[in-house]
Design goal:
With about 170 residues, this protein is mainly β. It is built from 1 helix and 10 strands. The chain has 2 domains: about 45 residues, no CATH class; about 100 residues, Sandwich (Immunoglobulin-like), CATH 2.60.40. The relative contact order is 0.17.
Length: about 170
């Protein structure tokens, strides 16, 4: 049995295969396969144009570094415990806007300042709102050469965030 649809003119249920409504005589319009294919290609084309996919030239994105500090490091300390090195502290958003996906980046160095390893983690509050202070903790596996650490901040998919403070 054929599927039933409603006539657009009179609302009577009619067969999907009918060429015209038996009640009012209105023509049943069908969308051809060609129309569907053209529509799909048009939608794909529009999406590629609006998303920048139509640009065939390769662009290199540069990391944007803010001029003014947006975060104030309230405190941080390097720790070693149970075979892990960590950086623990608090950071405050001193910008007028919320900041999404803030990553604390820890650089673990030797006594002479040579980088042994780096690690990163999201700060606890995401997003961090204006004037809000958030704790953070970066942990990494131990290495006997690690003698101190350095700290910076960045956005998860963006550039470095300028800081002031400790």
């Amino acid at each position: 049995m054929a599927k039933l649809i409603k006539c657009k003119d009179c609302g009577q249920e009619i067969s999907k295969r009918a060429k015209a409504c038996p009640n009012c005589g209105a023509e049943v319009k069908r969308t051809s396969l060609f129309t569907w294919i053209v529509t799909i290609f048009a939608v794909i084309f529009m999406i590629s144009q609006f998303s920048g996919g139509g640009n065939t030239a390769r662009t290199v994105s540069r990391v944007k570094v803010e001029e003014k500090p947006r975060l104030d490091v309230q405190s941080f300390r390097c720790e070693f415990e149970h075979g892990y090195h960590s950086i623990v502290g608090e950071v405050k958003n001193i910008s007028p806007k919320k900041i999404d996906n803030v990553m604390a980046v820890g650089v673990f160095v030797t006594a002479s300042g040579e980088v042994v390893k780096t690690d990163q983690s999201l700060i606890d509050y995401n997003p961090i709102m204006p004037n809000q202070t958030s704790p953070f903790k970066i942990m990494t596996t131990s290495n006997p050469q690690i003698k101190s650490c350095k700290l910076s901040f960045k956005t998860m998919f963006g550039g470095q965030i300028m800081t002031k403070g400790k």
